[in-house]
Structures
1.
Amino acid sequence: MPISGVANVVQLILKGTCVTEETLNVFYYGSATNLDGLPAFIAAWIAAVMTTLQSAVGTSTLYSEVSAQGERGVTSFATQPISLSGFVSGDQLPPFATWDFTYVRGGALERNGYKRFSGIPESFQQNGVATGSGPGQVAALATVLNQDIPVVLDTWFPLIRRTKVHRLAQIPPVYYDKSSVVYSKIGSQNSRKFGHGR
């Protein structure tokens, strides 16, 4: 697929804490219209995504805020405090261990996007591979991450953001449509190691 020329692009940020480490997940969404406003989009995103995400992570993971701000065509921003913890009791892997998802590129000359979520329950994995209830939960989360977010008048769809193409800085950034979102593996993220910060 070519570069997305969608009129409105927003950055959505999910903040949380896994054990003692701050987590930050950044998403990009596009819409042909922006009539409902960002608070309504945030509310729709929370309703569409959070229950499935909570089902894939442990109770020692707490999500505290969802914010959105305009990147293109949107000049507003909004923040919604939340207090939503994971649903799965028991031990978790360390915060740097993550469920890794790939936002599959829409064309051969493009690059994939990635999302990583801390808070993997021990009961959902064995030797670093999703087992038990894990495969079903991450498959459900991939489906949710892949879907469009309908509000009332607007529909927001996931995008892949690129700030460099062929090592050249893109000012402003460019946005690509994805073809799908798939669960990849249990991976790791150095920035979420204890004492590192994010």
Note: The radius of gyration is 17 Å.
2.
Amino acid sequence: MNALMSIALGGAAYGFIEKSFGASIPTIPILGRAGTIAIGMHFLNKGRGSGLIRDIGIAAAVIAGYQLGSTGKISGEFDGDIASQVSGIAAQV
């Protein structure tokens, strides 16, 4: 029960991170925002066994897996559209 509560707290912290910083977090194209946060938390944790950072990473990975399974894509994922402001040579890069 303790591990379940820790991961639930990690999920709440993930929600806070996405709500507060979601638009400014760069995303890895295939992984989307949740997958990118999960990978970031893994490397930020440096392989330690426990802690809030690890719990945030687990929650983010679960959310990314859920989104992929239910909709076929992860939110924040690059969908192939280039912003309308980008044109010319910048659009070809």
Note: The first helix runs from residue 2 to 21.
3.
Amino acid sequence: MYTQLAATKRLLYDLLEDRRHGLPCNCGACVYGVYLEKNKAEGRRYSKRTFFVYSLRSDFSWATFYEWNVLSSQIPRLPGGRDLFWEARERRKDARNGKKSKKEQRILSIDIYVDELKERLKSIPKKKTLGLIKKLAKEEKNEKARAFLQSILNKKSFYTYYRRAGEPALFKVVSEIRLDLLKAGHPGKK
């Protein structure tokens, strides 16, 4: 059975051994290999650890986004077919335009609910990424792999790597490399 843990272990070993796969693979290890080839002297480079955390973070972010879409379809509707989030958006527009609403208290509670939900949704990928790295480090038998994982978990390092893995510049670099890899893997596309 192919699980998140097995996929993460494979990525870990591929990164540690600088292993790349055939085209059109665009996994984290392949992207990192192309990144090293392309960016020889462009300022501060991203490390293997950052790419590892980026891969986990993006996987969990997409999973959370998918779950959110499923859950948001089950949000109770207000009279007129509007959902709570539509109401909160309208409230914010009114507040920016200086309008007062008759249902100020109810809508204010909706605003607070939406803001809390957004914060919870942001924290889910961080918690899952940290949990998976801790689980891998605990179960890992290979000394090199365990040292790699422990260096991510050392003191506040995880939060630094996680923040750096969320930089828009890294997202742009990874997106461009993945697009190039996919184009190279399909004959006839340039």
Note: Residues 104-139 form the longest helix (36 residues).
